[in-house]
Specification:
The protein is mostly beta strands and about 180 residues long. It has helices at about 5-10, 20-25, 45-55, and strands at about 30-40, 60-70, 75-80, 85-95, 100-105, 105-110, 115, 120, 125-130, 130-135, 140, 145-150, 150-160, 165-175. The protein has a domain at about 5-35 and about 65-155.
């Protein structure tokens, strides 16, 4: 079995993740997980535009969610389905260790992968629009993390608009592997 994107990117940090988080990042082909999520959306003009542009889910409580990951030769396609509202990204290796890149449409973001107390954090550290580097003030904020609680994979994704635009979207919840 080949190492997955996150196994490679995390290197020695991989072993610090709980098995539930490792399971989500261990797929060799196509893998899906289902669960429930609570979603909060920002209300500023820039936040509403960003949420619409990227196709982030609408606000809701106890929303069904399915994540399908498809491994390719160049990375992973992530499709997130929140009660019929879907958005996709393409994840690939970064040039530096402990990082990966995620592409949404015309934007690519590089995220660092620190692991502390069994929790993987995903702060945005670089970004590009059509391959042109974005200045730090134009990067979205990310207070996102993945962890396990009570034997279940948990996520808390928080994305903030640049330039004091406030919250774009926050989705929190749990996932379990589909049969």
């Amino acid at each position: 079995m080949r190492q997955t994107l996150f196994q490679t990117a995390l290197a020695d940090r991989w072993s610090a993740l709980p098995p539930e988080v490792q399971a989500l990042h261990s797929g060799q082909d196509i893998q899906s997980f289902s669960g429930r999520a609570d979603i909060t959306r920002g209300t500023s003009m820039i936040a509403r535009f960003a949420a619409w542009f990227f196709g982030f889910p609408k606000a809701g409580h106890d929303v069904p969610v399915t994540i399908t990951k498809t491994r390719t030769d160049k990375g992973e396609i992530w499709e997130r389905n929140f009660n019929g509202s879907t958005f996709r990204s393409f994840c690939s290796r970064a040039d530096q260790p402990y990082r990966y890149r995620e592409r949404f449409w015309l934007f690519t973001y590089e995220q660092e992968l620190p692991v502390k107390d069994g929790t993987m954090h995903l702060p945005v550290v670089h970004g590009w629009f059509l391959g042109i580097p974005l200045p730090k003030p134009l990067l979205p904020g990310s207070d996102s993390r993945e962890y396990a609680k009570d034997g279940t994979f948990r996520f808390d994704v928080v994305l903030k608009a640049p330039l004091w635009g406030g919250l774009i979207v926050r989705y929190t919840g749990h996932l379990t592997p589909d049969p």
